[in-house]
From TrEMBL:
Gene: Map1a_0
PANTHER family: MICROTUBULE-ASSOCIATED PROTEIN (PTHR13843), MICROTUBULE-ASSOCIATED PROTEIN 1A (PTHR13843:SF6)
InterPro entries assigned: MAP1
GO molecular function: actin binding; microtubule binding
Domain of life: Eukaryota
Region (Disordered): 1-33
Biased composition (Polar residues): 1-12
One of the record's GO cellular component terms: synapse
Protein name, per record: MAP1A protein
GO BP: any one term: axonogenesis
Length: 152
């Protein structure tokens, strides 16, 4: 088929989300236009790349409208979770035009999420965003770690 022929005849070109990416670009987030379309509504969305700003931006939150977003980043050295991504959630949700309840589920207690929560708490309330905190712990042999339980 044409897709396989183009990838064999042009080995320097790659696909990002099914779209040809610019081989000169090192970032999957290139200057390609985002295809227009209606927003997608889902129950649960995992914020890509451990909530890193490398792949997630305002457009993600404008297009992917979830009741629950999972934030799993726990690597401050790599900007995970990213404050810019958390701010993009607020900005994206403010453009939805409907005040649906959104729950943010951080899987780790990080300084970034704590500061963001405290500094934007009023905006979160205004936008009907709730941040889940968990006091649950999973114990496995000699190890224990915090956990969230999600019920629908």
């Amino acid at each position: 088929d044409e897709l396989s022929r183009s990838s064999h005849s042009n080995p320097g070109k790659s696909l990002v989300n099914g779209i040809k990416a610019n081989p000169a670009s090192n970032s999957p987030k290139s200057n390609l236009p985002v295809p227009m379309g209606p927003p997608v509504y889902v129950d649960l969305a995992y914020i890509p790349n451990h909530c890193s700003g490398k792949n997630t931006d305002l457009e993600f939150f404008k297009r992917v409208r979830a009741s629950y977003y999972v934030v799993s980043g726990n690597d401050a050295a790599n900007g995970e979770p990213s404050r810019a991504v958390l701010d993009a959630l607020l900005e994206g949700k403010s453009q939805w035009g409907e005040n649906l309840q959104v729950t943010l589920i951080p899987t780790h207690d990080t300084e970034v999420t704590r500061e963001w929560y405290q500094q934007t708490h009023e905006k979160q309330q205004e936008l009907n965003i709730m941040v889940l905190a968990s006091s649950s712990t999973v114990v496995m042999q000699d190890e224990s770690f915090p956990a969230c339980k999600i019920e629908f």
